[in-house]
Amino acid sequence: MRPFVTETAAMLKLPVANVDTDQLIPARFMKEPRKPEGYGRFLLHDLIAEADMPKPEAGQTILVARRNFGCGSSREAAVYALADFGFRAVIAPSFGDIFASNCVKNGVVPATVSEADAEALLAAGNLPVTIDLEAQRIACGNVVVDFAIDPVWRTQLLKGWDDIDLTLAEADSIAAFLARDAAGRPWAAPRR
Amino acid sequence: MRGQAEIAIRDLLRHHEPDKALPAPLTLFDKLWLSHVVTERDDGLALLWIDRHFVHEGSHHAFGQIAARGAKVARPDLTFGVADHYVPTRGRGLPIPDASVARMVDQLSANTAAHGITLFGLDDARQGIVHVTGTEQGLTLPGLTVVCGDSHTSTHGAFGAYAFGIGASEVAHVLATQTLWQKKPKRMRVGVDGMIGLGITAKDIMLTVIATIGADGAAGHAIEFAGSAIRGLSMEGRMTLCNMSIEAGGRCGMVAPDETTFAYLAGRPFAPAGDVWTAAIDDWRRLPTDADAAFDREVTLDGADIAPTVTWGISPEQALPITASVPDPAGMADAVKAAATRDALDYMALAPGQKLDTIAVDRVFIGSCTNSRIEDLRAAAGVLAGKRAKVPGLVSPGSSLVKQQAEQEGLARIFTEAGLEWVESGCSMCVGMNGDMVAPGERCASTTNRNFKGRQGPGARTHLMSPAMVAAAAVTGHLTDVRRFS
Question: CB distance A68–B215 less than 8 Å?
């Protein structure tokens, strides 16, 4: 996974609350293999067909929206659609938990800001935005706001860790757990 | 409460936390968490052991990820496959006409066969929606961790398990290691006390909870549902409740195991038996939250205040009692909320102030992991018996075994005689992946979990409600207070 330090780019402003994962990528497109074309072409497919809805444009890599962004299904394809389009950070007052976790696995920063700061960013001019993960700060012209992110996720994004490698190094802890667990929960295995 | 039960749970947990003094007292969630920690890092991230992992057709991204690493499935014995998301609900046994759907189903069969994973596939009598089949087979037990690449995995929390949905990268991680790195969520108690009224179901309770706390109200929290109204629910009702925890933003939902849980599980195919069953019950009795354990957040509702509830908008939080009217954005002080309301009314083609029980529907759907179990079908059939539906509709039972039982009980006949279509089991019209969709602009009364824009098909308008309320809407052709029928 590519580490994230800072990103400066154009921002997609989506003044919508509860943008769910079905809107990020409608279910009917998920039968398509991700490779080689990527899911970027399906991003927000039906939502942006609506009148007055801003459309993602090439060069935009940061997205700001209203509360509860990425709620709904666990489909990681929602993040694939964002990442394949080129998005590297999403900013909102709150996120669907599974979506935010999926973002981190794909090197996309879920940046939590206050409702007021989200509104300020949505109202900011069409200037480039800089998101600094180390400093947890977003700057767009004279709008400068801090954002929150879980410290564990922040480190993971800064370093670009691979979870599976991290876990395979814990083989001894897992073996020790299983030895304790066999004694503690003899009923836990499915009956065969 | 702080007596023997607490000492006993400490014995159980001591196997896992030999070096640590246990904080007192503990919630159900604390106990589930502590008993699964393999190791914990200084930053608080814990590696958790996963007891059950369900995969479905949508899990192909994750199988692809482990294939790319050359990894094997670590514990095929704890992994179970179910074909549900894409399966056709008609023409079972015939070749699947849609080539891309056929590919998804075949890919699951190939991936599970290659790794030695038990599959409840299309030709298996136990096939069904993963959250119905998994629980009816006795695979989900109190005290377990259960994951699946599906947000409604929270359903399994009804048994007193820590059950949560994960994304494809996490599915790959569980396949490769049978563990997951997790941050401990905060603990939230949703208490529903008092007597719920006649005709009020778990669905009405949950829609009311979501409307009260918001669709992100439980974000970052593990919800425990408690209180006398919850204790009185059947396992089916508890599954409906926990299922929609995700619609409240919760990481998971759970209900403490009790005699209702044990009675449901006894004799299920994969549940423990004999001496192991006796030992299990003994341990499971120690799982409920200790009397004075603290939660990070508590919300309490009075069961007597809950009415049959329907959604009117495009988020599950946009729900109201059937006796209410469509909200008017003009009267809202909060500009963002007013904008969201206008957007919802525009999409749903509703006028402010319109009485909810005058909204005409074009079709109905009874199914999904939320409300498709035998009790749900009985409730809907109870309203439909001897009547004709005014609109077309689809009834898709939660599993092939539920289908069989409903046919034996005569419920299937009630549905077909009412003019509804009785089909095979799968996710069907809840998510529309298999082609069962609501047409653009059509309005559907649905027992499902999400009323998002386009969820049941592009331009589809969804109203969420209980199975009995959907049946009532079918009979009258508009949203209807089911209490009129009782």
Answer: yes
